[in-house]
Design brief:
The protein contains 21 helices and 13 strands. It is of the alpha/beta class and 493 residues long. The structure holds 2-acetamido-2-deoxy-beta-D-glucopyranose.
Length: 493
Amino acid sequence: MALSTTLTLSQVSLSLVLFFFTSLPPSYATSSFVHANSQQSRAEKLIRSFNLSPKDPVNIVKGDNGGFVSGKIVEKEFSFFGDSGPSIEDLGHHAGYYSLPNSKSARMFYFFFESRNKKDDPVVIWLTGGPGCGSEIALFYENGPFHIFNNLSLAWNDYGWDQGSNILFVDQPTGTGFSYSFDDTDIRHDEAGISNDLYDFLQEFFKAHPEFIKNDFYITGESYAGHYIPALASRVNQGNKENQGIHINLKGFAIGNGLTNPVIQFPAYPQFALDNGIITKAEYDDISKSIPKCEQAAKTCETQGGQSCEYALNICENIFNSILSIAGDINYYDIRKKCVGSLCYDFSNMETLLNLQNVKSALGVSDDLKFVSCSTTVYEAMVQDWMKNLEVGIPALLEDGIKLLVYAGEEDLICNWLGNSRWVYAMEWSGKNAFETSQTMKFVVDGVDAGSLNSYGPLSFLKVYEAGHMVPMDQPKAALQMLKSWMEGKLST
Ligand SMILES: *[C@@H]1O[C@H](CO)[C@@H](O)[C@H](O)[C@H]1NC(C)=O
């Protein structure tokens, strides 16, 4: 019953794709839906909204542990271009599995694309959000080496981030994409579990590719990765300081349209919606009345954790849902767009391609494994993590000279630039005042204003024009230039 109810609401839920899901706006909810407004129905919506249809909610495989050897990496080179392209060796495209040591039998899948430019380019890891969505969404639709056509042919992406980096795309947390386990206790629930897994993976990755250890290293990603990225940056920095294993040459981390500091970002929704003409002043006044309740609940989550965090998420989501109930069929990843029919964003080509037997075999993926683009199970397991404030570890990283770039496409509602700007400006660190008073500069691409930039020392905030939630998809050239000049320390020159 809940299922068919949500299906009739598809016009709204379809716009809601990938990286985030939320409950439906109250005015669209029938009473039967309100009762079914569980994590499960929230998660199911994410799948439908992206035109994604994984058969299974998560990659937990039945059987014994399949010869699990803790800490082992198994990697192969592959080519999606067949005989028509460069040789497999020249291409430097790798796909692999890493057996997570702190698990019963979890295997983490990743792609590694060597730079098309030069091997001593930085190593970059990209993390897609969800929580629970595979990084292949970025690989094929944002900043990966190739784009995918409707006939499932691939073409080089001129603005793939492998034009300026050696880039890793990882399916995580466990259960996402082609990552899997035989044991459902391997599903992660918090940033500690996630960042430890990624840190262990990076250690083994650099052991397998020692020629890249000396390269600069950057952590990047989008949306819910606004949680993963600072957590991983802190974990890597800690490992370096404590001389754990290989020193990872961490130089910076970049968060794109992320969710990092919820107690600031949720209350920014009404202002952003008012400024962009999505709601009226009267509606703004009305919706803003729920802000204190949200802030209170979010603060309780920070001190008490556990169930109180799930409660805070439910409370704070009401702000967003109230706006959506007024906005109707708006695409809340890009407010310039309406979400009509099922084509808001359609990532089904990726799913079809990755489930082809010859593709799986080229990637070293077992034929009986299905690609889980966004896992409902992984999403649900993270509900107590959403409202956590991941800004808390960032000042220490800045003081250690590790750079942070927060960038945001200005047309995104769900992780809008305003909320991101607010937490970046509110952050307490030694450069706070200098950052606050920094002059706003133009970010120019091909002689055209592509964004506005504030910068001081290791901290930069970039608002990207004419882009929604997925900046590298909407402004591929600007996104590549942003990455390269930021890594070179030239973003503000
Ligand atoms: C697939 O589609 C693209 C774009 O429409 C086209 O250029 C290409 O030739 C097609 N490939 C095949 C094998 O049909």
